[in-house]
């Protein structure tokens, strides 16, 4: 029998013995009135005399995380959502039968209720002197071993519940994530934006270039796609008269996984009528500086050893200029697809040599040579129109779009542009995109969203829109190197 099997068998035997004594393993009649974190915060500075004057008992529930047995007394730690606190279980205080029960049958990992008075030990630790101890939930499986814990990163992600139990840092990451989402929601609501919900199953996947997930609706007898972006539906709302809208949404892209990519991810998208991408540059600077101050009290963070300063204004660099000055691509190379392909081949940059769209080839060079170098917040502007099918053309130079992407710490954080609202130009761009689509290209849907064109024909006000990757923002502000650290249950390959 394996060691794990022996432990499980022993725990089940204890559970059976408890039930035979009439002690329920999963009661629901204990109501805690206090929490560990609040006790430390409120009473941490009390003197011994002040603690002794507190007459009301404390009542807590938590998971049994550690214990030290001294015969007729046991020191233990319980952990609730707010932290840990020590309890002191004495035979003389609890009574012989209750003490024997605790000593023999309560295991690490069990959830217990404790009631007692607060005192400070000789080492200065706030402690609950237990007057009663009650089993609330019996754990049939043990916690990970204390000192080695969950060291296997993939196991941490697969068994996130254990990761959360054992690692305060992990719990803090997801508290911070919640604060970030709440900050965004409060900011846009305060700015007059209406929070909306748009379909997650769509007839035509649009609003981005990505391979979709496909499903089938039996009652409607048609294929549907999990959305890759909510953009085209949010623009329909601009047509309908909502002038400022935002959505905190889940998107799904049937693509590879990496430290920056998960098949389902969270985006914030917002659209503002009578605004341009330049207005959104200012709003984005304001948004991120405000978030930094909300979380840190200042304007700077450290991410993976690099100090990042959110003080505006941030640099604005045209796409082509970034390729030349930051990426080191000679300007003459950018003039033809043949030269770009040869340049990429010489530097082992992966590129599809069948690609006819020059802007897409430029984008591959950008990803490899420019993006990793953009550590401080930087706006890349003036993207080629041929890789910006939903963005408005620049009036002075119609070959580029009124668009920016925000890069921080060497990765894209946001994408925004002045929206294209001319239905004729939009149709032409969709048709060109389909025409130049490679035969095996899964990222471009071979069908035009006619209803979206119809909506534009009813008239959409001039507007600007932006998408911000929430997961990557959380990575930044929690100093997490991988997207899997900031998603509670990331998708993983099948367990071997």
Can you tell me about this structure?
- The protein has 496 residues and is an alpha+beta fold.
- The chain has two domains: 3-143, OB fold (Dihydrolipoamide Acetyltransferase, E2P), CATH 2.40.50.140; 166-327 and 370-485, Bira Bifunctional Protein, Domain 2 (BirA Bifunctional Protein, domain 2, 2-Layer Sandwich), CATH 3.30.930.10.
- Helices cover 34% and strands 25% of the residues.
- It is built from 16 helices and 18 strands.
- It has helices at 3-20, 36-43, 48-52, 91-94, 96-105, 153-158, 160-166, 168-190, 231-240, 277-296, 319-325, 337-346, 358-369, 423-435, 450-457, 470-478; strands at 58-69, 73-80, 83-90, 111-120, 126-137, 194-195, 201-202, 214-217, 222-226, 244-252, 264-273, 300-303, 306-309, 316-318, 378-384, 400-408, 411-418, 463-469.
- A hairpin with a 2-residue loop joins strand 2 and strand 3.
- The longest helix has 23 residues, at 168-190.
- It starts with a helix and ends in an 18-residue tail after the last helix.
- The model has no long low-confidence stretch (mean pLDDT 94).
């Amino acid at each position: 029998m394996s060691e794990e099997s022996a432990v499980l068998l022993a725990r089940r035997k204890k559970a059976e013995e408890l039930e035979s004594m009439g002690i329920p393993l999963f009661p629901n009649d204990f109501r805690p009135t206090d929490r560990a974190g609040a006790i430390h915060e409120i009473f941490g500075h009390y003197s011994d005399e002040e603690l002794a004057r507190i007459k009301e008992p404390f009542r807590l529930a938590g998971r049994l995380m550690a214990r030290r047995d001294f015969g007729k007394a046991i020191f233990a730690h319980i952990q609730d959502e707010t932290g840990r606190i020590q309890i002191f279980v004495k035979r003389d205080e609890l009574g012989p039968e209750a003490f024997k029960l605790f000593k023999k049958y309560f295991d690490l990992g069990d959830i217990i209720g404790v009631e007692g008075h607060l005192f400070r030990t000789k080492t200065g630790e706030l402690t609950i002197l237990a007057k009663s101890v009650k089993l609330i939930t019996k754990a049939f499986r043990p916690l990970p071993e204390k000192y080695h814990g969950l060291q296997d990163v993939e196991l941490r992600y697969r068994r996130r519940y254990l990761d959360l139990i054992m690692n305060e840092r992990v719990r803090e990451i997801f508290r911070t994530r919640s604060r970030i989402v709440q900050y965004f929601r409060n900011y846009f609501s305060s700015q007059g934006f209406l929070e909306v919900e748009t379909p997650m199953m769509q007839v035509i996947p649009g609003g981005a270039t990505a391979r979709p997930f496909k499903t089938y609706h039996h009652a409607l007898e048609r294929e549907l796609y999990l959305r890759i972006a909510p953009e085209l539906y949010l623009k329909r709302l601009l047509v309908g008269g909502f002038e400022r809208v935002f959505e905190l949404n889940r998107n799904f892209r049937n693509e590879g996984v990496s430290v920056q990519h998960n098949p389902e991810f969270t985006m914030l998208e917002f659209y503002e009528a009578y605004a341009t991408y330049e207005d959104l540059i200012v709003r984005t600077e304001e948004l991120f500086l405000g978030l930094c101050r909300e979380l840190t009290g200042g304007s700077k963070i450290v991410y993976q050893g690099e100090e990042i300063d959110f003080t505006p204004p941030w640099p604005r660099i045209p796409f082509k200029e970034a390729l030349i000055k930051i990426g080191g691509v000679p300007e003459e190379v950018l003039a033809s697809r043949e030269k770009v392909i040869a340049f990429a081949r010489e530097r082992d940059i992966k590129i599809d040599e069948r690609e006819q769209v020059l802007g897409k080839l430029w984008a591959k060079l950008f990803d490899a040579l420019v993006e990793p170098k953009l550590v401080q917040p930087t706006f890349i502007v003036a993207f080629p129109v041929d890789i910006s099918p939903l963005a408005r053309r620049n009036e002075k130079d119609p070959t580029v779009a009124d668009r920016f992407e925000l890069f921080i710490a060497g990765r894209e954080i946001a994408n925004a542009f002045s929206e294209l609202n001319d239905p004729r130009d939009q149709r032409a761009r969709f048709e060109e995109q389909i025409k130049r689509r490679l035969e095996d290209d899964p990222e471009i849907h071979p069908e035009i969203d006619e209803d979206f064109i119809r909506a534009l024909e009813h008239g959409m006000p001039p507007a600007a829109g932006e998408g911000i990757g929430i997961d990557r923002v959380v990575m930044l502000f929690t100093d997490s190197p991988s997207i899997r650290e900031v998603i509670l249950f990331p998708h993983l390959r099948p367990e071997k």
